[in-house]
Amino acid sequence: MLQTTPGSRGKRTRQLPGPLTALPALSSAQQALLLKWLKSDAQERSWQSLLQAAGSSQLEVADALLQTLLLCGGVALKEELHHGQWRPWRVVWTDLEGLQTLAGVSTRSQRDADKASLSMDLQALAQAHPWLSVAVHSLLNDVLTVASKTARAELLQALVVWQQAQRQGMRQDFALAARGHTKAISGTEWDWLEATVPLETLGIGRFEPLIWLAGSIALCAATESIGPPTSWAALGFVGVPCRCLDASLRVARAPQSYWLIENRASFERQASRLPPGTCLVWLPGRPSSAWLQAMRCLLTLAPAPADISCDPDPAGIQIALTAGALWDAAGIPWQAAHMASEIWRAGTTLPLNDYDRRVLAELQATPGLPPGLASLRDDLLSSGTKAEQEGWL
């Protein structure tokens, strides 16, 4: 039997004594409306707001649902006297999370627990795989629902599986592996992945991987010339499929030196200003295994020393080291160029973030860092700033 508690003048509260133990049978319309009502975590709602959620065509359904919830102990109903009749005024959930659980709606406690668990999983993921640190940091700070964050975290886990299997392929191949369909990753998710993860390095290409070259180099087939043995200076620059650079080629005109530039705009700008004898190569950030193999082949066919120019930031140092390792393995000298602090410090700079500082800490523990890059590392630490080479190169 319902218990009535008098309130201030003209108001009362009615409810069923005892806890809510079960949800009675509801019509499909009542079930749909209850799910709407329970999406809010507010402990108390005005009756008018619940009617608005129901819509003008569902007023009778709303009234019937309210009475059902009252009789099962799901709500306490605050009423007010209006022209001699008691009318619903405010609705109080007697056990909101219990009712949400019975109705199959996630509770705030569940979402908070899921959020905490996801945060711990992401931090563990970044610790085990430091190359995911930027993506994890972004995800932890993004204003997204737990469901969206969980979906993106699953993409990061799929990247780990892909990387450990040393797979190579297009974006569609990764989407198929991660979610079972080539179009299952949204454009927004791809934008996020592209901004936070070295996709090309992981062998996930938007298109067939190319190596972009300019200047004094000419390639021919081993048995016959592909074209006149001239440099590509007249063309500006060209993109060669990485798979085409192999032992079947020979160099008809070899460069005296290589110059690798990370920033694409800087690469294109410098392609028209090259001194004779220089082969310019675009060094994509975190180069893929396909690019590294193509560059390794090119260096075997036409060995020459290199200048390597990357953004003067912690990641730029790492990228320069990755590319320079090819020259180290071939026993050919290389050096960092156009990265010294006197070049960029007077221009536009950016503050170091937490990821930058973690990378710098790793670089401090890296033995045998070339003097130019070691000096840059120390300058970044002391100034607390970094820059982008497009501003001067």
Automatic annotation (TrEMBL):
Sample GO molecular function, one term: DNA binding
Annotated Gene Ontology cellular component terms: chromosome
InterPro entries linked: Spo11/TopoVI_A_sf
Protein name: DUF2399 domain-containing protein
Annotated organism of origin: Rhodoferax fermentans
